Amino acid sequence: MMAVAVETDPAFRLGPPKILFRSIYAGLGGISGIPWDISPDGKRFLMMRESLPLVPAEGGPRKINIVLNWFEELKQRVPVK
User: Hey, what's the torsion of the CAs at 21, 27, 33, 38, to 10 degrees?
Assistant: First the structure.
């Protein structure tokens, strides 16, 4: 992940790129969509890093559940009067 300073006044100008951090992150190749996000205050990143080596944890692989449109599901399960 890199950052570049941008100036627009008096003219558009880009500064030199600076490396923010280095690692191997999940989903950066061949997947549609953005595999990272920035916090609303712009001060933090959320990225998934590959675990190396890729060996299942004891008892099998770990599992993560992602719920899309969770607010719609909540409204269906807990109707508001």
Answer: -30
